[in-house]
Automatic annotation (TrEMBL), chain A:
Entries under Pfam families matching the protein: CDC50
Domain of life: Eukaryota
Protein name: ALA-interacting subunit
Matching InterPro entries: CDC50/LEM3_fam
Localisation per UniProt entry: Membrane
Region (Disordered): 58-120
Sequence ranges of Basic and acidic residues compositional bias: 65-78
Transmembrane segments: 137-159, 397-419
GO cellular component, one term: endoplasmic reticulum
Main location: membrane
Organism lineage string: Eukaryota, Viridiplantae, Streptophyta, Embryophyta, Tracheophyta
Keyword presence, Hydrolase: no
TrEMBL record, chain B:
Cellular location(s): Membrane
Swiss-Prot/TrEMBL keywords: ATP-binding, Isopeptide bond, Magnesium, Membrane, Metal-binding, Nucleotide-binding, Translocase, Transmembrane, Transmembrane helix, Ubl conjugation
Name the UniProt record assigns to this protein: Phospholipid-transporting ATPase
Residue span(s) of domain P-type ATPase C-terminal: 913-1163
GO cellular component: plasma membrane
Entry GO MF terms: ATP binding; ATP hydrolysis activity; ATPase-coupled intramembrane lipid transporter activity; magnesium ion binding
InterPro entries for the chain: ATPase_P-typ_cyto_dom_N, ATPase_P-typ_P_site, ATPase_P-typ_TM_dom_sf, ATPase_P-typ_transduc_dom_A_sf, HAD-like_sf, HAD_sf, P-type_ATPase_IV, P-type_ATPase_N
Major place of residence: membrane
Needed cofactors: Mg(2+)
Signal sequence bounds: none
Transmembrane intervals: 86-104, 110-127, 305-327, 357-378, 948-965, 977-997, 1027-1050, 1062-1083, 1095-1114, 1134-1153
Length: 441, 1224
């Protein structure tokens, strides 16, 4: 629009007189189009600017919208000729004035009412950047991606390498031999002794905090029936205690009073426990702050206490201490964040001590949880973390692969380009020139 | 009433007219039709409309309605229409099912988008129908004067007109229904009718009443008028009518000559009275009109195929999923105690896995519904509406004169504009303005008239330019043209448009001379003007020439008060041009009486003298005779026969001593013809008194004969008289082409489009126009397929004619096959009657293959129905996109039949525009409409649809993969809201901006390189290769997105605090990757970034984060797992960001590699041009740029450029000869 401003200035310079008796705003408008030989119609009169004198013509003709039209017309004319220089602009404006001098009758204005307004938008002439994938850009992009990705990959791999992880599958080993044929019976029986002791060796120094996880296999926490079977309202506030409609089939007890927390997820809460000791000295496992902060603060109410939980005929997993509010039951909170995949780890606790290399850790496991029925495995995991989280070689490898691929593409592109170069914008590559029926070349 | 009007009323044309004013004296009906039998049962009680208000004669009212719906039927019908789209039906089912627990999503997330989509489409339908309704109302409320009884007439709206009413129509009014003509302001009951809206013919037709009704020529005469008409039932045949009229105890036969058809216009006649026969939808025009078909573009139809494909894919994966679920439920679920398998509903019943499987199938069908983009239709609709807005607002397609902008009336064909293969064009009002200008003449072997025709000017300039362009190779030629080159070259710098900047030349010329133009007269030669002709060698011949111009016609003068001169009411515009020319030469035709023509002659005396010429006979023009003559007696008693006609006809009839000027005249006629002018030869014959009277008695006898061969007899007798003529000269009239038509045709031809002209006009006119707009040129081999008179042929003869036509076609095809010269071009000219045979089922394919081999095709004398049939033949026979363009109601059929109908919103009625899909003010805007908007829209829509499928496959399949990890239970990894927003907000705006703003090359380049247009007809951007390429890309992306995420988030802690990821975190991360991947993909697809694209693409990604933050802030009851997810866990985790980067790059890498390798080693045309533009090579190497521009055209054999090429070849040949002779 700077162009327009310039034009207004020029128009002003060329303006002979102000048209008389026009309001302030109109006078401003009048300035815009008031030129030698030009006509201006405002409300009831047409004023003509001629030889520096104002003349009034055709007093009966009324029309509106002429002013804008003229500006546009001139602007359009300017556009069409694409004259960037100031000197030319002056010439052009005077030409425009001459050409638009004639059509001043009312019918022209009426006809022009359908005329589309000029704007760069409607004419699809918005300034645009039109990036072109030149070979230079292509090579730069590929090499750049390669150069960025390979260090990231290396860094991830390095971080992953530094993570120390101990994984111990204990489900089968913790079942006494005599029950090996009937592991489900073993786990379901209330008489069997489920305590089981395991010894783990620390391969490398594990700096605190060392995270304790349990890992389950083949457990479909993401099954739709399972995922849906909870009531966020009930978990959040005691006022919604009876809001168990989404919790079926673990919504209410047989007599109809609501179960808190209701639903299959809570009902199947994991209930193995671990006790750690090194050299007969117990290692303290912190169970604080293992859940997501927001869950504890907002999702699980501090005024909601377990009620009627696990006292039906069918007992699922762990029982809850009904004197502790849900917001403090961090194991439950962790468990209720359903995992995305049927194999998952969940945080059990944290050991706030360094574990030296080759230390033997004795783990006292209360093997309560029934994974035997559905053929799942249970593992105990001790792991440190790095900036990428746990041990995760895949991320680094993937980065290296993609980075390498980019470099490979860059090289092959360069090679192809050296073998078969194409000058940019070479018209001989146009289809009508490549076509043998074409004229020449 | 004007004085001329009064004169006119007294005229009895039937005395003068010989051929068309036949009046049958047959009182008994003959022929095979049995009135009263089936198909001929209509009975009309004239002047007793009350009889037709009740049964059994209650015929329909004159109210017409072309709307699709009314208020009551709108909802059910429109909804039905909407759900005829498969995708919509599917979503409707999904929405209904979402109310049950089977659905994996909440009901709102299914219903809301569907309601939005359907509502939007229905609103559009309603608006369009409302417009139609308003148009109908306008027609229905036109006023007409109806007899109210007791001889009183009063104005009533059209819709009140009833069968049996007597109506009075005044001059220049349309007929409200089909009428029986009773009487007119002329004493002999004839009237002139313009049937432009029916057949597009501009010359007036004469209709005449029965003799018996002639006295009914004033209002009061209808007081006691009564009669009964028995006639055929409503039918669509415009040119037939069978009926009889019982009046005064007698029975008279009726034929089409007494029938005035609805939508034709009364001309040159002050008023007529008529009885209404057919009203409203029963009128012949309305019977002829077909419901406007809803058109769908090729791309959209293909899109449907893809949707079917995706639908089958959807069913397939749903089946896999449900089988998986059934197996899982049967074998695994009983063991999974945590799901309480014993305590379940049908949906998860391990004891009835098959039932659960079936339930799950429905769930899965809904779950994977994201494969079928629901927002696709809406987005396309939005994009098309915006594209249409751009067309409507294009200032380059706005006509200053009429004030009409271009208008896209239906927006669903935008992309089809980019794929047009054949253009079928009307002539009158489309290519020409239907205005004739007297431009040149040849008198007594000398040519007068210095002004050049448009064709000549353009050819000259083009030649000069072309020679300039080739000066490096042919300096010998260009040296001679140096002086012409320079001014042109300068101009071409200023106007970057086309090479043929004809208007610039013409206007600059006009500016210099400042000559006021007289309508119809562009002649300029001082030798003839202002009486100078008297000094010419053959002054007496010139005098005679002017007199022929002034006398030999059938026009009526009407004084024009303002200018003091006369306006002429003429049957054809040529005649008008002649009369204007005669007036300018000083021979002003000023009065006509029953027997005489008065001409005010300024010369040779120098001051005006009114001379009287007695008109003894008038042998009028018809297409068979191709000539017209008058026999006059001048004031000296000399009897003369003055004749004008087609040159070939006249030359055959010259006397031995009348051929003095034949050789010269022939030469000039050829020149004129080549310049695209319509030519007529003028001749005369001196008659002796006895010679005339002998002939006249024979003629009178023939004229009064009452038998079927009367016309043949008349023709024979006339022929006897029109012999032994003396040639005087020839006239050349320019049929004014509309502005820019030749250039536009040239450009369109270069863009590879074929242009057919279908016209209702006569063959000669059509051929002349063919020349004028360079569809024909000299040296082109014309194949004329015609038949002899085919009226009154019985079955066997018709068969013979059919065989004859077939043979002609076969011969022509053979000829084309045998042609060896690569520059040879063929033109096919065929007339309507022959076309009727050619369009028969057994012939039409041969006809089509012949037509396709011809460079240009001109069909003349075609009826509206034939226009539609030809269009259908081309459309179905070639299987390519056709575009029909026309301006009159006679073009409606073809406009509706063609894939795209374009109406010219000029001066004619609005019927064509109403039926069209696009309307433009002038033919020349067609170039921009197709080459710029069509090209853009095609590419935009094609890319948009491809991308749409890509993104929905990329997204939808991740849902499927995840199923495999959830035991096919139907759980989705994403939050419901993510999925709603995916199509509605997060990815829709970028794709809309792609569809609206993408430009591969700028509009100037589109126009400069017409060959780029061929990317559309060749369908380079929406072929199966490309579609499946995009789908494969989608599949690849889905795999990358899902498996990279799953592998990385498999079981490990992702936060530094040791927490592992849950479903919400994995889902959000995966979704982030999708958003990045698809939006980066679209950025790679675009080649044109304005701030809008930047805003939408990057804004969409940004919006996702904003949404995630905001969604995380609402109550956890609503947001569930997504509560605080971004702020608390995702954003602080580096792995979240590194996964996003990795997946985004990995997804787009193959596509990036593909396009960069393709562009660098196998570029397409627009790539190269983009580069040239980008590096400003066009500015640096102007020569190369011009050369490429001139090469960037399809091989064509029509248009200016080719014409000029041919001429250059010709010149070069001559030059070579000259050189060789000099060498020798």
């Amino acid at each position: 629009m700077e162009y327009c401003d310039r034009q207004v200035r020029i128009a002003r310079r060329k303006c002979c007189h102000q048209p008389p008796n026009l309001g302030k705003r109109k006078r401003r408008a009048a300035f815009v189009v008031w030129e030698e030989g030009d006509d201006l119609d405002l409300q009831e009169a047409i004023w003509t600017c001629k030889n520096g004198q104002i003349q009034r013509r055709h007093p009966s003709i009324r029309s509106g919208g002429e002013i804008e039209t003229k500006i546009e017309k001139r602007e359009k004319e300017g556009k069409k000729r694409k004259i960037p220089k100031k000197k030319d602009l002056v010439e052009m404006t005077s030409k425009g004035a001459m050409s638009s001098g004639g059509g001043d009758d009312a019918s022209a204005a009426r006809r022009n009412s359908k005329k589309p307004q000029y704007s760069r938008f409607t004419q699809q002439e918005l300034p645009a950047c039109k990036p072109i994938l030149t070979p230079g850009w292509v090579i730069t992009i590929f090499i750049f991606v390669g150069i960025i990705f390979i260090p990231i990959g290396l860094a991830s791999l390095f971080a992953s390498e530094r993570v120390v992880e101990i994984v111990d599958q204990y489900d089968k080993d913790c079942v006494p031999n005599k029950y090996s044929e009937d592991m489900v019976g073993f786990i379901q029986s209330s008489e069997t002794n489920k305590t089981c002791s395991r010894t783990l060796t620390v391969p490398k120094l594990m700096k605190s905090p060392v995270y304790v996880y349990y890992q389950l296999d083949n457990f479909y926490q993401n099954h739709r029936r399972y995922v849906k079977s909870r009531s966020d309202k009930q978990l959040r506030s005691s006022a919604y205690e009876k809001d168990t409609s989404t919790c079926s089939p673990e919504a209410t007890t047989a007599d109809g009073s609501p179960i808190v927390p209701c639903g299959l997820i809570a009902w199947s809460l994991f209930n193995d426990t671990y006790g750690f000791s090194v050299n007969d000295k117990a290692l303290e496992v912190s169970k604080k702050n293992i859940a997501w902060k927001s869950d504890q603060d907002y999702k699980f109410g501090s005024d909601v206490f377990p009620k009627n939980f696990q006292n039906g005929s069918l007992i699922g997993g762990a029982k809850l201490n009904s004197s502790i509010p849900l917001s403090e039951q961090e194991d439950l909170i962790v468990w209720m964040r359903t995992a995305a995949l049927p194999t998952f780890r969940k945080l059990y606790g944290r050991i706030e001590e360094d574990l030296e290399a080759n230390e033997k850790i004795t783990v006292e496991i209360q093997n309560n949880y029934n994974t035997y029925a559905f053929g799942g495995n249970k593992r105990l995991v001790l792991s440190t973390t790095s900036w990428i989280g746990g041990k995760n070689d895949f991320l680094g490898v993937a980065y290296l692969l993609v980075g390498g691929l980019c470099l490979f593409l860059a090289i092959s592109f360069i090679l192809m380009y050296v073998i078969k170069p194409r000058p940019l914008g070479d018209p001989s590559f146009l289809s009508w020139n490549r076509n043998p029926a074409g004229h020449f070349n | 009433m004007s004085p001329a009007g009064r004169i006119r009323e007294k005229l009895r044309w039937s005395h003068l007219y010989s051929f068309s004013c036949l009046r049958p004296h047959v009182k008994e009906l003959e022929g095979p039709h049995s009135l009263g039998g089936p198909g001929f049962s209509r009975i009309i009680h004239c002047n007793q409309p009350r009889m037709h208000r009740k049964k059994p004669l209650n015929y329909t009212s004159n109210y017409i309605s072309t709307t699709k719906y009314n208020i009551l039927t709108f909802l059910p019908k429109a909804i039905f229409e909407q759900f005829r789209r498969v995708a919509n039906l599917y979503f409707l089912m999904a929405a209904i099912l979402s109310l049950t627990p089977i659905a994996p999503f909440s009901a709102v997330s299914m219903i809301a988008p569907l309601a939005f989509v359907v509502g939007l489409s229905m609103a559009k339908e309603a608006l369009e129908d409302w417009r139609r309704f308003m148009q109908d109302m306008k027609v229905n409320s036109r006023k007409v004067s109806i007899h109210q009884g007791d001889g009183k007439f009063d104005y009533r709206p059209w819709q009140k007109v009833q069968v049996g009413d007597v109506v009075k129509i005044e001059k220049d009014q349309f007929f409200p229904s089909d009428l029986l003509l009773l009487s007119s302001s002329y004493e002999d009951g004839i009237c002139y009718v313009e049937t432009m809206n029916l057949d597009g013919e501009t010359n007036l037709k004469v209709k005449r009443s029965l003799e018996v009704t002639l006295p009914l020529n004033e209002d009061l005469a209808f007081k006691d008028f009564a009669g009964i008409i028995r006639c055929e039932d409503p039918n669509p045949n415009l040119y037939t009518f069978v009926g009889k009229f019982e009046y005064g105890g007698q029975i008279y036969a009726l034929d089409p000559n007494q029938i005035l058809l609805r939508d034709s216009k009364l001309r040159n006649t002050a008023y007529v009275y008529g009885v209404v026969i057919f009203t409203g939808h029963e009128s012949k025009v309305m019977q002829n009109s077909t419901r406007s078909p809803s058109k769908r573009s090729r791309i959209e139809r293909k899109m449907d195929c893809i949707i079917y494909f995706l639908f089958s894919l959807l069913v397939l994966i749903s089946l896999i999923s449900s089988i998986g679920f059934a197996v899982n439920t049967k074998f695994d679920m009983p063991k999974a105690w945590y799901l309480q398998p014993k305590n379940t509903t049908n949906m998860y019943d391990p004891s009835r896995p098959a039932l659960s499987g079936i339930f799950h199938l429905v769930t899965a069908l809904i779950l994977y519904g994201y494969l079928i983009p629901i927002s696709l239709y809406v987005s396309i609709e939005v994009v098309k509406v915006l594209q249409a807005t751009f067309m409507n607002n294009d200032l380059h397609m706005y006509d200053e004169e009429t004030g009409h902008p271009a208008q896209a009336r239906t927006s669903n064909l935008n992309e089809e504009l980019g794929q047009v293969d054949t253009i079928l064009s009307d002539k009158t009002g489309t290519l020409t303005c239907n205005q004739m200008d007297f431009l040149k003449c040849s008198i007594a072997g000398a040519s007068y008239g210095v002004r050049s025709s448009e064709v000549e000017i353009a050819a000259a300039k083009q030649m000069a330019f072309d020679l300039d362009g080739e000066d490096s190779t042919h300096s010998g030629v260009s040296m001679n043209n140096c002086s012409i080159e320079d001014p042109w070259d300068n101009k071409s710098v200023h106007f970057e448009g086309s090479e043929i900047e004809l208007e610039a030349v013409v206007t600059s010329k006009d500016g210099k001379e400042q000559k006021p133009l007289i309508k119809g007269f562009s002649f300029e030669d001082s030798r003839l003007m202002d009486g100078n002709w008297m000094n010419e060698p053959n002054a007496d011949v010139i005098l005679l020439f002017f007199r022929i111009l002034a006398i030999c016609h059938s026009a009526i003068p009407e004084p024009n008060e303002e200018t003091g001169s006369f306006n002429y009411e003429v049957e054809s515009p040529d005649e008008g041009a002649f009369l204007v020319a005669a007036r300018e030469f000083g021979f002003e035709f000023c009065r006509r009486t029953q027997t005489s023509v008065f001409v005010r002659e300024r010369y040779p005396s120098g001051h005006p003298i009114e001379r009287e010429y007695k008109v003894l006979n008038l042998l009028e023009f018809n297409s068979k005779r191709k000539r017209m003559s008058v026999i006059i007696k001048d004031e000296d008693g000399q009897i003369l026969l003055l004749c004008k006609g087609a040159d070939s006809i006249i030359f055959d009839r010259l006397a031995k001593n009348g051929r003095t000027f034949q050789e010269d005249t022939t030469r000039y006629l050829n020149d004129y013809g080549e310049s695209g002018l319509r030519t007529l030869a003028l001749a005369f014959r001196k008659l002796e008194e006895h010679e005339y009277s002998a002939w006249n008695s024979e003629f009178l006898q023939a004229k009064t004969t009452i038998s079927s061969d009367r016309e043949a007899m008349l023709e024979r007798v006339s022929d006897m008289m029109e012999r032994d003529l003396t040639l005087i000269g020839a006239t050349a009239v320019e049929d004014k082409l509309q502005k820019g038509v030749p250039q536009c045709i040239d450009k369109l031809a270069q863009a590879g489009l074929k242009i057919w002209v279908l016209t209702g006009d006569k063959m000669e006119t059509a051929i002349n126009i063919g020349y004028a707009c360079s569809l024909l040129r000299h040296g082109m081999k014309q194949i004329c397929i015609t038949t002899m008179n085919t009226e009154s042929l019985d079955q066997d003869d018709k068969k013979a004619v059919g065989e004859n036509v077939l043979m002609q076609i076969a011969n022509a095809s053979e000829m084309i096959k045998l042609e060896e010269d690569p520059h040879a071009a063929f033109a096919l000219v065929i007339d309507g009657k022959t076309l009727a045979y050619a369009l028969e089922d057994d012939t039409k394919h041969q006809f089509l293959s012949l037509a396709v081999n011809c460079a240009s095709v001109i069909c003349c004398r075609v009826s509206p129905k034939q226009k539609a049939l030809v269009t259908r033949l081309v459309k179905e026979g070639t299987g390519k996109t056709t575009l029909a363009i026309g301006d009159g109601a006679n073009d409606v059929g073809m406009i509706q039949e063609a894939d795209i109908g374009v109406g010219i919103s000029g001066v004619e009625g609005m019927q064509a525009v109403m039926a069209s899909d696009f309307s433009i003010a002038q033919f020349q805007y067609l170039e921009r409409l197709l080459v710029v908007h069509g090209h853009w829209c095609y590419k935009r829509i094609a890319q948009m649809i491809c991308y749409f499928f890509y993104k929905n496959i990329a997204f939808g399949l991740t849902l499927f993969y995840f199923e495999a990890y959830t035991g096919f239970s139907g759980q989705s990894v994403y939050d419901d809201w993510y999925m709603i927003l995916f199509n509605v907000i997060l990815t829709s705006l970028p794709v809309i901006s792609l569809g609206v703003f993408e430009q591969d090359v700028s509009s100037e380049v589109c126009l400069q390189f017409p060959a780029l247009y061929q990317q559309g007809p060749r369908n380079l951007f929406f072929d199966w290769y490309r579609i499946f390429g995009w789908m494969a890309n989608g599949l690849y992306s889905s795999l990358i997105i899902f498996f990279l995420n799953i592998s990385i988030f498999y079981d490990q802690a992702f936060r530094v605090e040791g927490q592992t990821s849950d479903m919400a975190a994995v889902g959000a991360t995966m979704f982030t990757c999708i958003i990045w991947a698809v939006n980066c993909q679209i950025a790679l697809t675009m080649s044109h970034f304005t701030w809008i694209q930047h805003l939408f693409v990057w804004g969409s990604i940004f919006t996702w984060y904003i949404f995630l933050i905001l969604y995380g802030m609402v109550s956890p009851i609503i947001s569930g797992g997504a509560f605080h997810i971004f702020v608390e866990s995702l954003a602080p985790a580096p792995i979240y960001w590194s996964v996003t980067l990795l997946v985004t790059i990995a997804c787009n890498l193959p596509y990036l590699a593909h396009i960069s390798f393709q562009r660098s080693f196998n570029p397409m045309d627009h790539h190269v041009i983009q580069e040239i533009k980008h590096f400003k090579k066009d500015v640096e190497d102007r020569h190369m740029w011009t050369r490429e521009r001139s090469k960037a055209r399809q091989k064509t054999k029509i248009g200016f450029t080719v014409r000029v090429d041919a001429k250059i070849r010709h010149l070069r040949g001559r030059l070579q000869k000259k050189y060789s002779s000099m060498v020798v």
